[in-house]
Design goal:
alpha/beta; TIM Barrel; 6-stranded mixed sheet; two-stranded antiparallel sheet; 26% helix; 21% strand; globular
Amino acid sequence: MNIARVLYPVQVLGPGKRLGIWLAGCPRRCRGCSNSELWEKQEQYEIPLDGLMKLLQPILQRADMDGIIITGGDPFFQAEELFLLLKALQSYTEDILVYTGYQMQEISKGTPAMRDCLKYIGVLIDGPYVAEENNGCHLRGSANQKIYYLKPKLQARYEAYMAAGPNRIQNFAVADGIVSVGIHTRNFQKELAEAARKRGVIIGE
């Protein structure tokens, strides 16, 4: 699998403390994407499933882990690998939230691996990011995206989370800088660059 980053605890993409897994590779290249650095797969991100699961074990076994997020990139761009990952993770929690640029109709009519992924996903948020429709809607980058509760028992939990307040941003310090996680506003990158410039920091392309 091509895995760009693993973060914990993510507390801004669904209820509770969540394990976040970011896959690299996305053919859509949506304008204004907040994770454009993950459009391309990279050789250094390759890791076998057993190696990834070994890496994740200390988090998966934590009593305070409330769920999992899988995003990217686009996880369904690696559908066969995604299916194996979901199958391995489902014994730890039913609350697996997956973001994808594919629409549900495309997935349900897609390859066997794409369809099989749906068996193990708790909540799916589908559809490409459309900058013009980024209006602060809960858990979604843009209003065209839809939330599917594939495990209906999770719906009340997510609705309570969304009712508690607007989208938030969470920053993680990593070896090569800062990773900003969450649903960003339409002008986030411009606003960030301007705020940094005022402090004497130039953010490159």
